[in-house]
Amino acid sequence: MTATTSTTTLVLPVPSAAVSTPERRRTTRHYLVCEPRHFAVEYSINPWMDPSAPLDTDLALAQWRALVEVYEALGHRVSRIAPVPGLPDMVFAANSGTVVRGRVLGARFRAPQRAAEADHFRTWFQANGHPRVVMPTRVNEAEGDFAWTGDLLLAGTGFRTDPAAHAEAQEVLGVPVVSLSLVDPAYYHLDTALVVLSEATPDHRAHIAYYPEAFSAGSREALRTLYPDAILATPEDAACLGLNAVSDGHNVVVPREATHLSARLTESGYTVHPVDISELRKSGGGPKCCTLEIRA
């Protein structure tokens, strides 16, 4: 099997009711997070990272704690994995696993600086109700490049995750996969350029927001076909990692600078919760990067 087989999902039928605007309904989520106790920018593996720039670790901790407080105030379950010295990017938990319908696919990092994170998360999953974690054979940076829509797994490639990892995800998770090509190195992971706002139901397609210029021409056409009602982000939204957001179907946690996106979300029936992630952004991360969703 090759990754190209996954593109057959592009012709899936869309329910006739999908053109209506559904009520935005919150569902309780389970998130895994990692405190940025050892957070630092010690190397550069994406265009956002500058080891020579000043960094306030205490401020990063405060911003992370405020993010977690938002999740808990919204009634979501938040689990924590202990940070490990020498792994400054472990705070970006989303890169370390993909959980869909109780199945867990681990991560395999492209950058050697982050490679050790994968095994710490594997151990956590095995100790917390997921003994059958499958570790990938291909480079796969998990929810950094995989976005579950409720019926499809959107899968990014171009800078981190191998195209062949998309077919591997389909086999392990047992869900159809749509491959999307990223073309702008500033948006090196899918979760920097696209967010799932509400998942698909029998009556409505999933609702997403994305930044078109981050994708290849063919991927833009695929997204237009699948999600004609998507919210399109502006360059300003993308430049503050505004799409690195977290949604429970009604509440959307978004970087506070993404004002245009926030306005569009409000117009579309969502409740926006702006957060400050200015220090975490210095490593190319935002709310979603810090948040791995565990889907039972």
UniProtKB/TrEMBL annotation:
Top-level taxon in the UniProt lineage: Bacteria
Keyword match Hydrolase: yes
GO BP, sorted A to Z: arginine metabolic process; citrulline metabolic process; positive regulation of nitric oxide biosynthetic process
Coiled coil: none
Keywords annotated in UniProt: Hydrolase, Transferase
GO MF annotations, alphabetized: amino acid binding; dimethylargininase activity; transferase activity
Active site residues of this protein: H189, C289
Keyword field contains Hydrolase: yes
NCBIfam families: DiMArgaseDdahMtb (NF045659)
Family: Belongs to the DDAH family.
PANTHER family: DIMETHYLARGININASE (PTHR12737:SF9), DIMETHYLARGININE DIMETHYLAMINOHYDROLASE (PTHR12737)
Name assigned to this protein: Amidinotransferase
Lineage, opening ranks: Bacteria, Bacillati, Actinomycetota, Actinomycetes, Pseudonocardiales
